[in-house]
Specification:
heterodimer; A: 249 residues; alpha/beta; Rossmann fold; 6-stranded mixed sheet; 3-stranded antiparallel sheet; 7 helices; 28% strand; globular; B: 272 residues; mainly alpha; ABC transporter involved in vitamin B12 uptake, BtuC; 14 helices; 83% helix; transmembrane (chain B)
Chain lengths: 249, 272
């Protein structure tokens, strides 16, 4: 794996108020072409970590350095949790995808090649016939794919996905992981998930976030690792294939 | 018909038509944003809070619209601030602001010696009393709105749709939202003349509800809303002239009739 760091997080603490710290002294590096699975209990700080990396939440302590010095220069694609979206909003599918190309330009107009790129991506996800439909016509799984298109249309160096497998049917889940493996050739991926069973076969490394962050430089989650780090997961081993771990809640 | 055309010869009537068109454009653009972002209740709070400004301006002998604008902008900023910080229960905060504004307005109107003759027109709207100064102010705001939505269309659309994501694209979405809320507050105040405080919000929501029957696209919703809004305003104008009723009430009545007819028609066509 290419060990060029893209993002370096040093002694970062974060939370929504100084007396309610969610992440404590986190050290974490994202390398080029990394594929990191982020696991951890609810409320453990997985989403908070993403917000810090995305620049949505200022850390209370510590520093984050990006490859290009400032946040705006690192091209990050982001797929948020789908339930934060208002599906009644009057917007067309293609316009959602195109928003990934805004690049901080408030006067942005989209060119024909840009629109074609959005259509190509939608076709790849099997959604080209919905391009001019309002998003309210889509199912949860289709919406996830639209979000994936939006996240990758600008060829990001880092793709961040916050629980992309919720509301997705099992068929698409497999397809989604195929897409991610393919995308990983070109970009680093940070994947927050509850579905540890599947991720250990897709990701390269695992980070467990539970107030602290424990980085595991392999995709095999051993019982020992989880015990050491207090990760509240139950472990089920399946022979020599990457181990399966299940949430015990 | 002949009579209506000859009415246009009167300045009060042609002023009213122009004011109606400008209000339709203002409400069409601002209303589409309000409806899409589901902040109708917030806008109701801003509208009613502006009455406090009208009362205070009356008492101090200032232009009531100036007072209304100050109160509307301050309450809009206050609501936007409280939603961004998310420390207050938003709906309660809005209800408090809503009634506080009305209470301040009523107190000052009562404290002002003499009778407040225009009070009714502030509450219910009177399109036939629009002055040339009003039209110039409305025109300025209309130009600002059209320029803003044309230049920043994509940014406004995406911030309304998904603020957090748009922030990750390198925009200071907080400042943009504050600016938009100021413009919305001004749009509300400029529509008081035509629709009145109590009825105004329907001008920002019913045309959008009608547009929603035809389209689910933000841009088209703006255009269709403006068209129906103007149709409603014209009908209201003629109605208020002939029956001597408040224009705001007739406009809303007309719009709701349009909406009902279209809804029923669409339903009938879909089932057959």
């Amino acid at each position: 794996m290419d060990r060029t760091p893209i993002i370096n997080i040093k002694n970062v603490s974060a939370g929504y108020s100084p007396d309610k710290i969610i992440l404590k002294n986190i050290n974490f590096t994202v390398y080029k072409n990394d594929f990191i699975g982020i696991i951890g209990p609810n409320g453990g700080g997985k989403s908070t970590l993403l917000k810090v990396i995305l620049g949505l939440l200022k850390p209370l302590n510590g520093e984050i350095s990006y490859k290009e010095k400032s946040y705006n220069k690192v091209n990050i694609g982001y797929l948020p949790q789908i339930n934060t979206i208002d599906k009644d909003f009057p917007i067309k599918v293609i316009d959602v995808v195109l928003s990934g190309l805004m690049n901080g330009n408030p006067f942005k107009r989209f060119s024909r090649p840009e629109k074609q790129k959005a259509i190509d991506l939608l076709s790849k996800m099997g959604l080209e016939k919905y391009q001019n439909n309002p998003i309210s016509k889509l199912s949860g799984g289709q919406m996830q794919r639209v979000y994936l298109c939006r996240a990758i249309i600008n060829n990001p160096e880092l793709l961040i996905l916050d629980e992309p497998n919720t509301y997705v049917d099992k068929n698409f889940e497999k397809e989604l992981y195929q897409h991610l493996i393919e995308l990983n050739q070109k970009m680093a991926i940070l994947l927050v998930t509850h579905d540890i069973g599947t991720i250990s076969s897709v990701v390269k490394t695992i980070a467990c976030v539970n107030e602290k962050l424990h980085y595991h430089n392999s995709n095999i989650i051993s019982e020992e690792v989880l015990k050491t780090y207090n990760c509240p997961f139950e472990l089920i081993t399946h022979g020599h294939i990457p181990h399966r771990v299940l949430d015990n809640h | 018909m002949q009579e209506i055309i000859s009415l246009l010869g009167f300045s009060f009537f042609s002023n009213a038509v122009i004011a109606g068109l400008l209000t339709s454009i203002i409400a069409g653009i601002a209303g589409t944003y309000i409806v899409s972002r589901k902040i109708v209740f917030i806008s109701g709070g801003i509208t009613h809070a502006s009455f406090g400004g009208i009362g205070l301006a009356y008492f101090l002998g200032l232009n009531p619209f100036f007072g209304a604008a100050v109160f509307a902008v301050l309450s809009a900023l206050g609501i936007e601030w409280s939603t961004q910080k998310a420390q207050v229960r938003e709906d309660s905060a809005i209800a408090i602001l809503w009634s506080l504004g009305m209470a301040i307005g009523i107190i000052f109107v009562f404290l002002t010696p003499g009778y407040a003759p225009n009070l009714m027109s502030f509450l219910f709207g009177n399109i036939l009393t629009v002055t040339t100064t009003d039209i110039i102010t409305m025109l300025a705001l209309t130009v600002l709105l059209i320029a803003g939505i044309t230049l920043f269309y994509r940014l406004i659309l995406y911030i309304a749709f998904d603020q957090e994501y748009t922030k990750t694209l390198g925009f200071n979405t907080t400042i943009v939202r504050y600016i938009i809320s100021i413009i919305i507050a001004l749009s509300i105040v400029m529509s008081i003349r035509v629709a009145g405080i109590i009825l105004l919000l329907s001008l920002f929501t019913i045309p959008q509800a009608i547009a929603n029957i035809f389209t689910h696209d933000f841009k088209k919703m703006i255009f269709i809303s403006i068209a129906f809004s103007f149709l409603g305003v014209l009908t209201g104008l003629i109605g208020s002239y002939y029956f001597n009723l408040p224009s705001g009430a007739i406009i809303i009545f007309t719009l709701i009739i349009f909406w009902s007819i279209l809804k029923v028609t669409i339903k009938l066509f879909r089932t057959h």
